[in-house]
Every structure is written in structure tokens, then in C-alpha cells.
């Protein structure tokens, strides 16, 4: 009775101390806790298995399926998940108290997954840190009271806190830690239960069966089990010098405990959160350390482990061995960072969604290189490519042009397979099927375009743009250089692959290509031909096709490997990439809301031809007309009637803008948004009062892509061309001319509506940047000071040589 009363009082006191520093509603829920069941059980130890030179205790496996997930994308199917929280995740930086904000975020994510119907279990540290905080507070309070009573002056002497024994801290912290967990989970209408185990109990087979039965019953009742080693009764740990003589309980047992628990319970996934991003090939603090995305059994010999964790003594090596043991038992494992404030709020849910977070352990090693390895291969090949002579790069492009015609039958056969799969699946619209389809004429046009690129590549890389004489014998040059590694993501457009490859080769850039799976057969053969052409000068690796199951969002996070992302596809794809890109610039446009404005002085013949071509020739193109602006004086004219008749004959669905609808008694369906890109035989018609009104409308609702004026008034046209701020502005010509091939660029990597670097159709020039080269003769800045002997000249030197000397 006295013990129960004391426990209740301690929990209420703990909840009261949380109220001011965490959240009142959590504290209220904790203060209502009357009894926390503690269940002690264990696993059984058997033979010793050696993953490397360090033995690891194993247990018999009762798992029937025994197969872990092969790829991250399969993790979304995980039903039973164990989340292991290391001491560094749960505790504060001073190791005295809990990181409440981090813990709350983790509980929220676990609750979200639990409420999705998954079965969540937590293996947690933190009792020692929480108990240390409480005991220090009690000791300081006790010392202050004693000194106040024994000091006649009521002056307190300098107080010191003795070294706290770790088991006592654990005993004082277990109840408060559990009260905190229960208070947090209560906010999501989830019940939690505590289970304590010890290493000394691992030999008892009956207790092991009891634990299994208890956990299954808790999961059946939708309760989250919270498991920890019973650190209050374990043998004394070794002192840890990193903690200045303060002993802490080893978290190595929690690593092995999480692995044992995951295998015993046939968990689908074990998430081990620590204070590092994942597993590195070298100690993380090393300059050359690289995060390992996927780790396979047998790779541990290539890993150099660093020092052990400052909090706890398990270290990354213990985590790896635990992870490999769980993997062998059929449980997938991810080691990730649970302390980074940028990702803590979604790290667990991101892992379950299959995103590239931390290190994923897999038993199945893919046949080809990883995307990271491909990017490194491409960068190395790209540097060699950029050092070739311009004639050599041109020869590669011409060879590719020849292969497109020589291997025409094989290309069309592969494309036919893709079309058959797409048609039978019924997932692609007619415009997308048209983009997917290749024909002999398309291949001939591609070949011609590639030869144009080959000619222009003769004077691209290393071209001197500016030359300045800074001072006598000190000359500065600005020259063109490749951007680096380009990632081009395209969908349903296999003809994009040779175009972009040729532009990358001409500009000396390395290239990563990620095509849509609907064109996988066509992309594969086109990439093979591209590498065949590159091989004539030994730079085959410069262009890589990403064929692994990489999510686009994961590719956009490779900011250390990729210099520029170029999306080619729907506005939805482009917007997703722009949102997902982490520190990598994206060149492109999210929408192609192109306008054609019909002025009151327009020619009837030109109007009909331009509108038909702009809208009907290829409605799925990003440079197709989406909004037709008509001067109000033309509304009841024969010209307007002819426009409507032509659109009806071409089966174009018309949506009325607000102003246009107000003129009509019976109008077509009113447009939902004036910013719509239809991508099909649909368009919006709107009325404007003047040419200036048309400009204002385009600036407000357009996407700065391509806009057209049709008029016979040259002054009106020139005003429109000069004052409209779009990437492409045309007079009396179709919007469909907005294209790299039609501009004479040979091809394009896309059309950019950005304000810097490149705008409009981006060809060879848009894939180059510059660097500055300074040639001196022992010059120093001090030479140009007031006391120096030299003066700045800053003379422009005529660029007589097109390439850098």
C-alpha cells in the first residue's frame, strides 16, 4: 500500500515538473496515471555466430517467411515495425534529462503509423538520463536544506553533486520515462505498456515464451509496447572516460535487444535511430566519409568504424552487427538520424514511405552500380569528355546520328513493345501515346538535329568571352566551361534521350538520364547506342541511364553529385521536382500557359493559320496555345465567326473567360481558371479591351513561356514585343516555333522560364557556364596599394582567338 501510494505521488510530481517545460496537456494526462504495469521477461541465448571478428549472440529463428524487403520502395508494406531509440536520440545534449521536443515528434510519427493499422513497438533508452536529472534535483534540494539549517548566517556553502550510480539513476528514471511516454501517446488515443528485460534472463526459455505471448496480446489490443533493459539491476558498467568519470548504462544491449525483439516477433522492419545520418564508409568526421545508401552482408570489411558514441558505449559497429543479425532473421533494417531538427519530424514516416533516408540493409545486391556510383562514373567520364578536342566531341555526335539511322529497325521494334504495353495498360492518354511513339521520319529528324549540334559544338567549350589586361603582364580571361553533372528526368519521350545526350556531349557535360518506365525498352536501346558512340573516344561512362528503382524525389536529394536538374514532362512532374530539389538548381518551366492575342488590325488569313497551328498541330506540347485573347471590337465580326467555326471543325473544346461569357446569352462552359494548361484539344477564349489589356492579362495569368500577337500594325506589334515579359514573344507566327530545333539550336534540353542563366529553348549555350583564368608574373595585391609600385589598367583586349590559349 505504501509503495503504491509513493509511486502514485512520484508520477504526479514528475508530471508537474513536465508541465512548465513541455506541454500542459501531456502533464495532465501523466498526472492521471495511477499504475504502470512492469513486465519482466527475456530471450534465450544459443550458439555464437561470427559476422566478423567479434562474436554475436544468436537465437533460434521461428520466423516462417524469413525474407526481408529487397528495396526501399517495399518498406511501405511493412506491417510490424520496431523503432529503436538510442540514448543520443532520447537524451539532451548535457545527458541530464530528456529531449522532450524530439521525443514528442517521434511519438507523433509512431502514432500516425499505428493509426494506419500497423503494429508499432519501441525499444527505448533514456531512463538513466531522466533519473539522473531527478536525483540531482533531489540531492541539491536536500543539501540546500541541510546547509540552511546548520548555518547561523543562512549562507549556503558551495554545493557539489556526487557521482551518481547508473543503476540508481535507472531506478529513479524508469517510472518517469514511462509516464512521459504514456502522456504523449494519450494525445493520439493510443495506449502504451512497459516491458523490462535483463541480460541475465536470456537463458530462460519459459520467460522467452512469456514475452512473446505478452507482446502478441498487446499488439492484438492495439497497444504500443515500450521495451527497455532493466538497467536498475544489471551488473555495474565500465566507466566511460568521455563522460568525465560519470558512469552510464551501455546502450549496446538495446541494439541487440531491438534486433532480438524484431526477429522474435517476426517484425517486417527495424528502424534504429541514432545521432548520425546512417552508416559511413569512414568515420563520419572524416573529410572523405561517404554515407552508404544500401549496405549488404559482407561489405563490413570495407568499413572503417570510428569512436563509439559519447552517450552509451554501443557505437556504430554494434548497430551494424545487430542490423545484420536481424536481417539474417528476415527483418529489414534502416539506421538513420533521429536528432537532426530538419528531419526528426518525419524521419520515421519517410523511411516507411520508402524515401532515401539513412542506410538501408539489404540481402540482395543489385547487378549494376548504384545511382551514386553512376553519378561518380558520369562525373569522371564528363571531365575526360570536356578535355577532348572539339572535333572529337563532334565525331561522337555524328556517330550517334549514324547509329540512329543504321539501327532504325531495332529502335522501332523496341518502341513497338513499349507502345503495346502502354495501350494494353490503358494508362496513357492519346497525346502521351503520340509522344511515346517513334517513326522513321522522327528518327531522320533526330539525326539531322544531331548533326546540327555537332557543327555548333566546334566552338563551345573553352571559348573566350572576355579578355582584360589588369596590369602589365597580368591578363584575365573569362572562358566557357561545362556545368558538370546534369540530371535529366523525362517521361513518355524517348526521342529526348539522344537529343539531350548530344547536347551534353557537345557541351562537355556528364549526364544522368531518368526516363519513364513506359519507354523502358526504347530508352535502353537508345542509351546503348549513345554509349557505343561515346566509346570511339573512350568516354562511355559520361552518359548514364538510371535503371534502378530510384524515386525522383530521392534523385533530387543528391546535391553533392548533381549540378543541375532538367525536367522534361508534364507540369505536375516539373512542380514535383522543383519542390523536391534539395540545393540543386532546376532548369525548366512548370507550366506552358501560352497566349495568342488577336489585335483589331489582324489579317483574317494569318489569324486562322496561326490559331490552327498553335492549338491543333500538337496540343500536348508545352508551346501549344491555351488561351486565345480577342480584341473586343472583333467579337461580332466575320473574323471571329471564322475562328469559332475553325475550332469546331478541329473539335477543340472552348471554355469562356469571365469577360467573354458576359457578352453571351448562351456561352460555353465558363473557365475554372485562367491559368489552365489543357494539353489537349481545349482552350480558353477571353476578351480584352486593348493591346495593353492583353499584355496585363498575360502578365497576370501567363507562365512567361511563349506568347503571340497577330496584327498588321507594326507599331502595335513592336510595343507588344518590347513590353511583354515572356521567354519567347512572337509576331504573326505560331507559338509552336518555340523549340530548339526550329530555332536552329539543333535540339533543346527544355524550355526555361527562369530569370537567370538560360531562358526560352535551352540548347548548347544554356549548358555552359564560365570560369575566370588569370595569368600573372608574381603579382600580389600589395603591389597595387598606395605604397605599391603598380597601377590597375583594366584594359579590354580584343578577343582574336575563340578558344583559350
UniProtKB/TrEMBL annotation:
NCBIfam families, alphabetized: P5CS, PRK00197.1, proA, proB
Keyword ATP-binding carried by entry: yes
Organism: Acipenser oxyrinchus oxyrinchus
HAMAP family registered for this protein in UniProt: ProA, ProB
GO biological processes: L-proline biosynthetic process
Subcellular location: Mitochondrion matrix
Family: In the C-terminal section; belongs to the gamma-glutamyl phosphate reductase family. In the N-terminal section; belongs to the glutamate 5-kinase family.
Gene (UniProt): ALDH18A1
The enzyme's E.C. designation: 2.7.2.11, 1.2.1.41
Name recorded for this polypeptide: Delta-1-pyrroline-5-carboxylate synthase
Quaternary context: Can form homodimers/multimers.
